Amino acid sequence: MLRYVARRIVSWLLMIVVATNLTYFLANWFLDPRANYLQLRPPRSPEQIDRALAQYDLSPDTPLLVRWWNWISNIVLHWNWGYSPVGEAVNDQIAFRIGVSAQLVLLSTILSTVIGIALAVYTAARQYRLADRFTQTLSIITLNIPVPVAALAVVLLAIALNRSLDSTLLFVAGSQSPTVSGFWPLVLDRLRHLALPTVALTVINYAGYHLLQRSLLLDNINADYVRMARAKGLTRSAAIRRHGLRTSLIPVATSIAFTVPALFTGAVLTETIFAWEGMGRYFVTTISKNDVHGAVAVAAFGALMTAVGAILADLAVVALDPRVRVSGA
Amino acid sequence: MTANIPGLEPLIDDMAAPSEVEGRGARRTHLSRRRLYLRRFLRNRGALVGLAVLSVLIVFALFGSVLTIYTYTDVDFANLSSAPSPEHLFGTNGAGNDTYAQAVHGLQRSLVIALVVSALTTTIAAFVGAAAAYLGGLAEKIILEVIHFLLVVPAFLILALVSQRAHGDWSVLILVLTMFGWMFSARVVWSLATSLREREYVQAARYMGVGPIRIVVRHLIPNIGSLLIVSFTLGVVATVQSETALSFIGFGVQPPDVSLGTMLSDGANTVSSAPWLFYFPASLVTLLTVSMALIGDGLRDALDPTSRSGGRA
Question: How near does any CA of chain A get to the CA of B162, in Å?
Fold first, then answer.
């Protein structure tokens, strides 16, 4: 088991390294850090700009391979991901943003998986009844709503709610208030900020799990082993949950890994709309400010998230499927 | 997501299906394949609604401009951020542009991008997937590795990197969206085509000395046609979503050009002071994606020979 996990981790690490380096070259090709200095007043001469950029390994005068070598050896030796064109360390920027994004993405992944699968179990047992038809239509619609539309609709609803309550129950911007102190007030404040973006991300993500799980569950809800479980004396819902669901969970578990990139894209948009200073917002800033090193760090983070998701999905499959035997081979 | 793909049955021209007879008496008729698919599609209420909505949208995009005297770039300084009125059907934005004219143009732009990208990605996916399956061996391995790699790369970031350099040129956007949009359906095509390559007619063609390219084009791709049609409609949905997302954060279509994504990002800033700037593009883009998805689902059910409706068509 351990060897299997280790092998998976190594192959994914390789994938991350390749993806990150590829992004490094692409970013150098498409982003021009000199542009940041061109609007400065008083105007700088090209030599001044190059000198300023050279200290951060960004000067286009230095050969790309030399810059690449400096960049990668800094990461490997000092875990230093470089600097933006104006000299902010990427490490500092990422450090506080990762937590902000992680709570958003993690919470909405968990919520949408649980909600989606629970809805699927509920509706598959009631195929073609009113509840099934209603939730299915709803899921088809929410699955296809573009993220900005969903997020802004949530904002509009929250504004209406706040108005009707005549107080700010849920915040539509920022990840926390600067003035709150104390442990419990802080937790409460965080939750009030977290609620809306999480709802927005969950609304667009749960439907995929619902529809996939429902159709898989319907495929084997009448299988012999489910009937056998009923014959043993289990209730219908217990038979579906314990026997029908368990086998049909496997493809869903694998699909979770491949929704991570989509979730990351969703986070980029929701963070922009809800003014969260997370990785998604950073992504937009780095690209529009020609911050090569920052953009590459975001890419590495995205690849890492995908890898973590995929490995967790593999482990889930091993845990769920008794036919999958993991040996060292 | 392999649960909902159309099946692989070879396309038999006269698929004999017992039909529910209109008149009295159990008269059995043979239905041509096309008629069968049409009947199955027409019985799907969701798909019909989708088709109706999509037709309305297309008519709106093509001929909507006759209802207004403004074009999407015209500026009406007397009406800045004014609410919908008989003169400006959807109101105006902060710069005085007519939102109705912008919506017509934006829908056109989004539709063109989505249709072209989806057609291109489906074509590429069909060729690459089928070729990988037919060639087998090392070529198959390499192609699959590349697809797998491109699937895990944070594609959205690379999309944004490349397209921000295009400065809103929508033809470049089409190119970029195509480059990073074909992998998933190529994988699905591959998994279906692997079982096709063992079929007798493929082997017969090979023993007759037909070249690999010709076999892929003449024998493999036509037999996954139903999958390709479905993947085209769903590709349109995916492209509209990416285009909206890119334009929303400012890396896709850029002013002065207008797409539904740029209109949404306009509306996002004034969502409480001028909500009509958000409502109209939001409903247009949602209608577009949902109707396309409904049509895709309907097509999938109609084209799937193992579907429940098979015997009752």
Answer: 6
